[in-house]
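Hi P.,

Sorry for the delay on this. The queue was packed all week, but I finally got your sequence through. Input first:
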Amino acid sequence: MEGRDAEKGVSTPDEKTSLNPLKKSSLTPRRLSSYDSLSEEEQQIVHQEGLSNNYDIESVITWRVFTFIDGTILQSRVLWMETLMMGLAYWSVVLIMYEIRWKNFSEFVGSESSIRAFIAMFSTLIGLLLSFYTALNLGRWWQMRMGVQNIQEASKKLTVMISQGVTQDDVLLSTIHRYARASLFLIFAAAKVDENHQEHPLQRAVTHGFLTQEEADKLGRCNPHQTFVQAETLWVWLGNAVTSLQNQGLTKGAPHYCALMNAVEMGRNGVAEIESFLETPIPLGYVHLLCLMVKLHNGIVTLLMAMATVMLAGGEKGFQPVGVCRVAFRAFFMPFLYNAILILNAEVVDPFGADAADFKFSQYDINMLMSNRSFCKAAENLPDCLAQDVKPIKK
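Then the structure:
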């Protein structure tokens, strides 16, 4: 299969750094689950290559959670900048109020319980809206993950049905998984078009060996600009190939042909589903109102907690260290939590970018490549119990 690809001018994965199997040839392909399928050395390489999104849940639920930094919200620069701004505002109010503190300042501020009750009015509503917003975004995130899964499964289904029931032609079988991988690559490439990747996703697919220049030029003639349309068109080409097999009489009749076209439609629909979620964000009015309320809440909490800190730092009862620490913690904790939830939601809106929690293209690509290669070799490596002819039922 690799030789036929080379003759057509298509680089095989072994020729591309981004698609290489494990660097050590004696090891298994680098996209594998850790459920006892990899040795300790292989698992270490998988994690070093950044191809595994798995984490040790038993460590997260213990005190060791405080040692986790990579891939968490704690690495967000925006979160720490927001926290720093709230901290500066808090300490500025504390210092100013402490210097100009007047007589009966405690009566002016009021009791701490009344302050908490006032803030709780905001916290309850914001908590409800944030919960709904987060659940909605995670649902959309999962649907996009299932779109990726549909692309993978369509590639595998086509390979199984054609290799085991139609033809063992190497060029056709390699083209099936190559086009499927190319369609998924275009989705990831489109999400990473920035100052570092100014090259069009279609041309990047050629650079990485998923498409030939001829194929890219013909895709460009079908649609010159819209990457998702180009990704869907690759599945249309595969549908045309299936129809050609039907016209040549190689399929096993209409039901078989319909099943093959259903696999093609599964892959095309996976691309369409992902596009629909990425191009249809949650209505701006809802997101704007939610973010506005969160920032308003954070500002009010900072101001009131700063005044409460000054109240507990003097007066008739003198300096109250426990009360000051309690109020200061509340001033930082709630804004930090709400900002963190907003940032997490912003990250899952587009899981095809370069954030730590985003989908990893190499993970899905290697899975498709190795699965399809294995399926193609299955007929030549049948176990003895399946290789022999089956005895008919005696009448």
